Hints:
By secondary structure, the protein is an all-alpha fold. It has helices spanning 2-17, 29-53, 64-91, 100-125, 132-155, 162-186, 190-211, 213-218, 230-291, 296-299. It is built from 10 helices and no strands. The radius of gyration is 45 Å and the shape is globular. The termini are far apart.
Amino acid sequence: MILFLAFSVPLLWLFLVYSRWERELAPNRLAWFQVSLRGILAGILGLILLTQLRRLFGFAWRPRVLLFGSVLLADHLTPVLLSVGAAILVLQGITRNQRGGALFLAVSSFLCGWFTVPGVVEAVTFWGRGDPYALILMPLLRVAEILALAPLLARFHPWEGSDGFLALLAAAAVALIGALPSFLYDLAYRGLAVILAACALLAVLAVFILSFRRVFLERSAGIPIGLATGTSARTADRSAPNAAGKSAATARAVSGTTDKSMSGTTGKSVSGTTDKSMSGTTGKSVSGTPGKPASPVSSRRRSPPAGRRGPGRRV
């Protein structure tokens, strides 16, 4: 259980980064590792701040509303809001041009680095002690919160103006849901709390797989991936005008060839035939017939032969 507490979040990062993403994302594993290192450094500073803030959350166990507020602030809301705020500050310039899978991997790598720090510290703290809350329940809830926060942060990217405020509200909602199993555990419903945490993890994991089903389902079936990542989206944007230009050029070439063939073949045949018919047939009938010299028989009256006179006249 100590190993599960210490390495559950790093194993989640390995599962995410080494999944069957597009070729554009595979060479960037070193970049995702560097992002997770930044999350670890930010997590160390955040844990120091969280340790100081937890002194303010030691509310009384009665009434139960104060108990729920103590659990919510100490174990869920404050760590989640600190991690989301740090992710927005650190990743806003890095992920400005990223979309889809690339943005999701950047955010999840940072969050995994952040939540690795409290897991390792608590593993050292609880070494030799069998506390089910720290060894089982909290690792399950951390993994579920990471899988829920990463798509939400990617949804409100680039976190400017109202989008950043909505991202913090969504993170607070995730923390509120995650505090329910912890509250049930403190109320001595330990088995129900663990089952509820496991169901929450499975539900978030199912939503995650369905959101990126092209990676986890269609790729295993041999269907090509069309995930719109930052790199592939820019490549598609660059290739779309080229494809449109090529298709337009092809259309112009086809129309030019058709026009040439139509004007060359049909024009020649029509004009040649018409010219020949007009000059050959009409020319002969119009210019040939009037141009012939008139026959003396047709132009002059035939006179009777000498010695003969017209009928009815006697000399």
